[in-house]
Write the structure tokens for this entry.
Amino acid sequence: MRSYFIAGNWKMHKTVGETVSLINELKNSLKGVSHKVLVAPPFTALDAAVKAAEGSNILVGAQNMSNKESGAHTGEVSVVMLKDLGVGCVILGHSERRIIYKESDAFINEKVKLALVHGLEVILCVGETLEEREAGKAETVVNEQLEKGLSGISEDKLPRITIAYEPVWAIGTGKTATPEDADEIHASARKKIAALYSQAAADAMLIQYGGSVKPDNAKELMAMDNIDGALVGGAALDSASFTAIARFDS
């Protein structure tokens, strides 16, 4: 039986002080939530976030990492550095990394494999653009991103991977895929996992939905058979809205 996983991607928001303040609020408002909850502040606030969340049920993740452990990579942050801070999870392949920073599936795959080698959990993001959806290519694009993103990864590593389906056209736009549309892609992704690995692996895989998730649509999305949580953007920056999403089943 799959559980839910609600994650908040703060993107390029929140100073150290703002991070500590928000986590302190969430520690109270999310106390007792039985499913997995994570926040992903910016790199500059990760150390403070890990310390602020200590002793609570809130996990702290990073928004990205380098594909290299160390070396002459100006401006990059390595998996070793993240582990040293106490970070346990990293978001990889977010559409903004793919589209704005031109990260390829092969490049993202290198990061996924490196994160797993070092014991981190991974949220692997996949999703189509509006043009791809209108051309009827949504499932093809998502399945290709899955296959390439998971290349070379054995089935025994899958429990440390969560898939996040985030239609690019729904991120930060206020548009949301209908629960039925989202569930259709989630079901297709689960079928692809079964083809790549096994039905047992597909049944166990957590697949989050990301794309303008808000308190007023979270419960309906989470009610779908193949949606196992949410990767939340803007609504994760406010304690009241993120709490309402995380407590969708209350």
